[in-house]
Design brief:
This protein is mainly β. It is about 0% helix and about 35% strand. It has one domain: Galactose-binding domain-like (Jelly Rolls), CATH 2.60.120. The radius of gyration is 17 Å and the shape is globular.
Length: about 220
């Protein structure tokens, strides 16, 4: 497995631009819908859904941290990228997140009303990419019947400027890849060597824009450069 020691550039925290409407996009996994966008494509939440470790993520989630993992295997799509790719991630979590790639932290935020885009460049395409998220839910107004939901939402774009290739995926139902989730985060849950074969699948809660979150989270609209 490779670590971020082989990565030459990490772009600092980028606050997303707030927009009033969802950008039109028919993008799904692969390059569908990306051809009309500027290159490299910018991830947004238009095809994303909130996920959690169980269906009770919509209401009454007790305070605590949960862990999520996704392994993106090396396949023929990434072989067309060349030796490396740039990865941009739009992400928000209720209430806070740490975002890892191949065992290294590269994004963190506590404020689900503000989405962020993080970019990491020159990630080798010769070995799998292991994404991990530590999502922390804080205490809410438990006297409300719909109090204290918990969830994460994210969209990913991997691109190669040299080959003009791009791949897009989000948290959400198929054809997006299946995340795994654990209510209790084990030690080193973000490690590339962690065996998550017995982790249950994360549960898709609701598409972006639907209750209980609605659309307080701005659609990420631009990258910091």
């Amino acid at each position: 497995m490779f670590g971020l020691g082989a990565v030459s550039t990490i772009v600092a925290l980028c606050f997303a631009v707030v927009v009033n409407t969802m950008p039109s996009s028919d993008a799904t996994i692969g390059s569908v819908g990306l051809a009309a966008q500027a290159f490299p494509p910018i991830p947004d939440f238009s095809a994303a859904s909130w996920i959690w470790t169980s269906t009770n993520g919509l209401t009454g989630v007790p305070p605590g941290a949960s862990a999520f993992r996704l392994t993106v295997p090396v396949d023929t799509a990434f072989n067309t990228f060349g030796p490396s790719a740039n990865i941009s991630v739009a992400i928000s979590a209720d209430d806070a997140y740490n975002l890892y790639l191949n065992g290294k932290l590269f994004g963190s935020r506590r404020d689900f009303l503000q989405s962020n885009i993080w970019t990491i460049n020159n990630v080798p395409t010769t070995q799998p990419w292991v994404f991990a998220i530590l999502a922390t839910n804080y205490a809410g107004a438990l006297n409300s019947p719909t109090a204290n939901p918990a969830g994460i939402i994210a969209s990913f774009v991997a691109s190669s400027s040299s080959t003009q290739k791009a791949e897009f995926w989000s948290t959400g139902p198929a054809p997006n890849p299946q995340w795994k989730g654990a209510n209790l985060a084990p030690n080193h849950f973000y490690s590339t060597t962690m065996d998550d074969s017995d982790w249950p699948a994360a549960v898709v809660l609701t598409p972006f824009g639907d209750a209980p979150w609605g659309r307080p989270v701005p659609v990420p609209a631009s990258l910091c450069v």
